[in-house]
Structure formats: structure tokens, C-alpha cells
Fold:
Amino acid sequence: SKEEIDSNPFHFLIKDWEFYEDALLTPTYFKNQTSLPNMKYISIGDTESAYTSQTKNNIFIGTYRMKINFPEKEGFYALEMPQVYSAYELYINDKLYLKVGYIPNYKAQIQNRGAFFSASGETYITIAVKDASGIKAGITSPPTLGVPYAINIARILKVLISNFFMTMIFFGAIFSLFLALSSKSNYSYMFFFMCLTYAAYLNHPLLNLCFTMDGNFSYIFEHFCAYFVYLMVIMLQNRLCNLNKTVSSISEICGSVFCAISLVYGVFTPYLSAPLCTFFSNLCNVFEWLAAIYLVAIGTYAVFNDIKYGRIFLFGNVCFAVSLLLYIIQPLY
Structure:
């Protein structure tokens, strides 16, 4: 209703999506057909209900559809589409508004996009998606619907926040490089490489907001940067906390192995079977949680052994563990 739009200028479209599995449908199809393929209602981020087709093969095909009742008086609205993996077509009623990648002769592309449209009364949003990466598939974060100024402000804020953190991390990298060159400290070199990798990781969604990127490169780049940062953090804290060499070596070898796995997984995922992709995906998730638990344990060890800055280590590691939890539930918000 108009009152709802006035009180809340944008809405996350999370629940009540119609999902047609293994079908690429257009608004014309819905108009002309009396019987439709099997449909179920899903929420964005509910991977269990949307991805059953990936148990058969490594290709995700599906159509999302939602009916929205706008005020009877025609208004101007905006729909922000987050990263969709990894080729899709967006229709509003009968009109094609967005096309990212190419579905017929599958070409993976990723970009945050926005559509502006006029609507009144009963309106249908239809999104046909195809993905052959096996890493992520379909809509993983909810589209945002609202009035244009609110959507534009939200997009600008995303850019500003990403730029702020990226700039801070970049200056941290420059400062650590200066310390490394002046004091010959190995710790500073490690912190320098960690900051550079994390800045590149943060820059990735910013690039997707501004440019269309190749889907396969995006997968490989994003996953490798994430696990390389985990490895650098583990190595750095092992040395700062003077941990036992055996424990340090085991943790660093495991981290290095998972970095290699993430790289191989990203490169060869399109050629792997669906069960194997699921296995690697679950393995990577287990590593993230083990890394978080290990870092919290290091912080606790530092506090109880009165190691300098031990409380800061513990606080930072707990924040890291919480961020992993938020990353898991973020598709709902």
C-alpha cells in the first residue's frame, strides 16, 4: 500500500517466491499455459529447497516468480538485483528489464544491477536463472524493491562503506610495508600481504557494482582471497603468541592445503560432479569454522598466558567468528 511505501521506502524480497525447478520460463509462458511445471514456495537463501536439481547434475536451472500488489495509482519504483549466479533474465510483467550473462549458450557474468519501472496494481516479477559453476547458484541475496531515491541512496552507501574500509586497509598495508622495510620485521611483511589480499577481496563486490565480470573468474578470485586471508591471520597470530611449533605447523599446513583446495575447486568446479562439489563446499565450510574456533582458542591462550595484546587478539578473533555466523545468515537480510 502507499502507506507502507511511505513508512518504509524499500523492502527486501525474501519470502514467498514461486520457484520452478529445471525450467527457464518467461511471462509469455505463464500467460499461454494452463498447466505449469512443479512449483514450490521458497525464501531467498533457503538453499535446501531450491537446489535439489544439483543432485542430478552440476547445472542449476530455475525460474523465480513473485506477485506484488502495488497501489492502484501508477508509481515509479526501483528494483536492485544483487549478484545472481550467474546468468539471468529479469522480467517485470511482460517486459524484459535486465539481462546479465547469456542463458541459451551459457555465458557466466556477474554484476549488481538495478531496474527502474512504472507499475500499478497486480505486478509480476519473473527471474529466469542458469548456472554451471557448482559453487553458488541462483539468487543468494534478496532483491530490494522500493522508491528510486531510497534504492540509489542504499547503493551509494554500499560504495562509500566499501571504499572506506578498503582505504583503511590499504593504508594499513602501506604502513606495515614501511615498518617491514625499516625494521626488517617478518610480521610486518605478513601483515602487508594480508592487508593487500583483504583489500582485493573487499574490492571484488565494489567491482561487481560498477562492472560486469566473468563469473568463473569471480568465483576463483573470491574464494582464494578469502582462504588466503584466513591463512595469513593464522600464521601471524601463531608467531605473535609464540605458539608451540608443532601446533603452529599443523595449523599452517592445513591452511595452505585449504588455500590450494579452494583454488583447484574454483578452477575445476564446472567439470566436477554435483556430489563432489557438495563435498568440497562442505569441506570449505568446515575449514572456516575450524579456523574461527582455532583463532578464538589462540586469543584465549594469549589472555591466560599474559601475552602482550592478548585481550585485543581475543576480541578480534571473537569478532571474526561472529562475522562468519553473520555471513551464513546474511542472505536473509
Q: What stands out?
A: Confidence is low (pLDDT under 50) at residues 52-56. The longest helix spans residues 148-183. The chain has nine helices and 14 strands.
